[in-house]
Predict the 3D structure of the following.
Amino acid sequence: MVLDFYQLREQPFGVTPDPRYLYLGPGHREALASLFYGIETNRGFLSLVAEPGMGKTTLLFQLLQQWRDRVHSAFLFQTQCDSREFIRHLMNDLGLKSDGEDFVRMHSELNEFLFRETLAGRSVVIFIDEAQNLTDNVLETVRLLSDFESAEKKLLQIVLAGQPELAKRLSRPGLVQLRQRIAIQARLDVLPAPEVVRYINHRLQVAGYHGTELFTPGAFGLIADRSQGIPRLINNLCFGALSLGCAMQRKQITSEVVRQAALDLSLEAHGPKTPVPHQQTAPRVTPGLRPPLPFYSWITDKLSRQRVLQTLVLSLVCGTFVIYFGVRSVAGTFRPSAAIYQHTQTASALAGSESQPTKRLIDAIADEQPHELQQTAAHENSLRSFIYVVQPRDTLRDLCLLILGRYDEVVLSQIQKLNPELKDPDHLDVGQKIRLPLHPLK
């Protein structure tokens, strides 16, 4: 019924790890490339760590699919077992007989199999999912598997995938030998708000949706906030929202529908919170001046974490401070450009605790001369703006919807006045600096 109502070929927000639906955002693409390179260069041990629901199993299936015709592989997920059971699971998945209970004999048969595959020119790769559940004894057994090698190369490569508990387990002194053998350690992080929008649209496209925007900008923002960028929670929210929307005969999913779906999933009031960074240094403030903190906080929160709903509140606070600082500027008691420049220099020192896109943004602003941040025309005095560095897959429409909540002729006209060199608004180059308004004029 839902599929027919929204004209979908299949359910776009299912729970199975289907590689067709894998969205390769920057983080997932980097992790996939690292693991692919590790297998290609025969590095032996690789690891993939991610919070629950981040799509690590789907990523492993994609990796397995890429190597299916070139390697002999095994995929193990029965990780709550002892060493003998682990070896038996491994041999069964490789197509070897493991009827005997003799642990030494099973090792011998596995060694012979690996040599045969090597002579035939095939590599053997083992993918172990939910590896955080392996006991220390089984992890030691896994380490001993790396001893299967010839004079030229390893006969077996192993990819350990698990939750953050796996990284903690590997940091124990008793597992130092295994940890030292892991040549590549990949991680998956939560999706920022723009990637949440692209993730949802990608899955809708794979499922065959070709209509107008199915989710409103407000719905996208609420999904990003309630899910905290975790793909599994995004899927659950979207599935519930589509079901409710169908029941309510809504052809477009609004924030009201998403909010009700979040309530049904107990995500409205008790959703996961973003951890607060530790040991952040307070920005240096010139005596007698109030720091332009709302301006900086608005940019970093908006463009780094993309918390859309919070941005609406912060925009109001920012507007209040803009008026306040404007009055003080007329009186000659405050110089916004110098304070902003000083603050970005201090913020650059904190870049180690910020995400990479935020660091690039701060660097881009700090590289400018202070006078370039001043508004030199009467029109620009009423049009506060900031500089944004274009990232891969950014579009002007997405940026305007996420930052300003609208994209129309008025907004486009303001952007063209701020960026006279911008000839084609439909085409942005990666690394290009564009000036965006904080608030669109009426």
